[in-house]
Structures are given as C-alpha cells and as structure tokens.
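== Sequence entry ==
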Amino acid sequence: MNKILIIGLLLFTSNVFSQNLKLGKHEFEIKNVKASVTELKGEKVIKVERDLNLLPFDLNRLESTVDEPTFAELKNVSFENGIIEVKMLSQIQDPSPFKGAQGFIGVAFRVTDNEKEYESFYLRPKVGRSDNQGFRNKTVQYYSYPNYKFDTLRKLTPGIYETTAPVDINEWIKIKIVVKDKVAELFVNDAKYSTMIVNELKGKMTKGTIGLWVDIGTIGYFKDLKITLARP
C-alpha cells in the first residue's frame, strides 16, 4: 500500500509541475508560476502569478532571486525573428510578499531549453505615472537571463535599458516586440515609434520559445497574444 501511495503521489506531483494551459489556439506550459484560464470583465484571459514555493526570492539577495524564468511558456513555437503582440494587465497582490512590488509584467522571448537563457522586456506599471521622474524612468525594463538582470545593467550602463511609458496598474496595456537578429524594439499602446530599442541583445541565444512573464507581488492577466514569424 505504501509503495502504491508513493507512486500515486509522484504521478500527481509530476502532473502538477507539467501542467498545461490552453486559450484559443495557444497552449502554454507553466514554469515557476501559478496560472489558469479565467474571466476578467467578461473575457477569457490567462492569469499568472509567480510561485514562491517553487522559486523563492530573498530580499537580501534581490538581484539573484528576481528576473527569473517565471512565466507561462508558449508551446510548439520556435521564435527567432518577428513580432510578438499581447495585451496585459497587472495588479499587486494583497497582501504583497514584497513591499516594493510595482506590478512587474512582460514577455520573455528566445527562451532556450530548460529555460537556461532568454531575453525579456517588462513593465513596472505602478510607477508609469508617478510624480517622481526618477521612478517614471524605470517603468520599462529590458534584461537578458541569466547574466544581465536589471541591477547588473543599471550598474554597467545606467539608464540605457530602462525608460518611461505612461502606463498604470489595473489597466490593459498593449505591447509589441519587434525582433530582428540582435536588435529588439518595444512599442507600447500602439505608439507609432518604439518606446525602447536594444541595439545589441545581450544573450547568445538566437531562437527559442515565448513566455508570459510576471515577478514578485504581481497578479498578471494576458490576452490577444499574436505571434508573427519573420520569413527566413
């Protein structure tokens, strides 16, 4: 009986960790997050929250325990160059496990096998309309996992991989990411011109999957994901 029970628990655990989600034509695999398909204001959306039981963070080691592979990863897509579009809305958990939570939400792309490397753009919507310009200037963030997280980039090249955008928590934000080889641009809310351009992506990877990403203290909602692959 004990052996049967143990095997049953192992199978159950395996199913939990390999849980998949499907919304429309897209199927996702959960990576270090709690995720579900739910309704928000009458629409079916994907809800994503970082799972601190699977991937804890340490306030005293913030740089090494944030900007991690915490996303719902799109299956059966190999993205090298092209366009990623999605609408996203973030809320701050109540209570929040992190006093400095700012609604961290975004997209990871070119995610390699076992999530060892990827590129990412994300937003901190809570500071998007702050009265403090210094806070506003940190609304948009680029980083490259695992070697170039936000704090490393701030120290090496202050102000280059962060910028401002007039967004806020609890509102839908549309982002478009355009990737061509080592260059990536982020467009916010159908703006004609990009909000940020990265002229030399930091990662060595050239292709991979896509993830709907959140971080500490965030309840993230995503809808209307559209992927356009560039022709070779």
